[in-house]
Design brief:
mainly beta; SH3 type barrels; 30% strand; globular
């Protein structure tokens, strides 16, 4: 017999979004807008129901499309490209990283 799946985050969510409590989130987090081609970082916040997988925490990707109130983000991990559907709550815009490296 195969082992039964217990879901994605069963028993591991108590401290998952400890620093992003719902009361600390402002309305600006829920009405963000991005353009296609923008660079965004995936930062999971307190909404556990549609939180992206923790392995993508801090990853930078490019917005490909918009689906409803969520965005389709293309993330490159080593040589593989992953396509994620992430709500705008968990995305933050990233400045141009090449200019940041030149200035440092």
């Amino acid at each position: 017999m195969t082992k039964r799946s217990h879901g994605l985050f069963v028993g591991k969510t108590r401290h998952l979004a400890r620093h992003h409590r719902p009361s600390n989130l402002s309305i600006d987090n829920f009405i963000k807008t991005f353009n296609i081609g923008d660079k965004v970082a995936i930062v999971p916040k307190s909404n556990i129901k549609n939180i992206p997988h923790p392995r993508y925490k801090g990853r930078v990707g490019t917005i490909i499309d918009k689906r409803g109130s969520s965005y389709v983000v293309k993330v490159k991990i080593m040589s593989a490209n992953r396509i994620l559907i992430v709500p705008q709550l968990h995305l933050e815009k990233v400045e141009n990283t090449k200019n940041m490296q030149k200035n440092a």
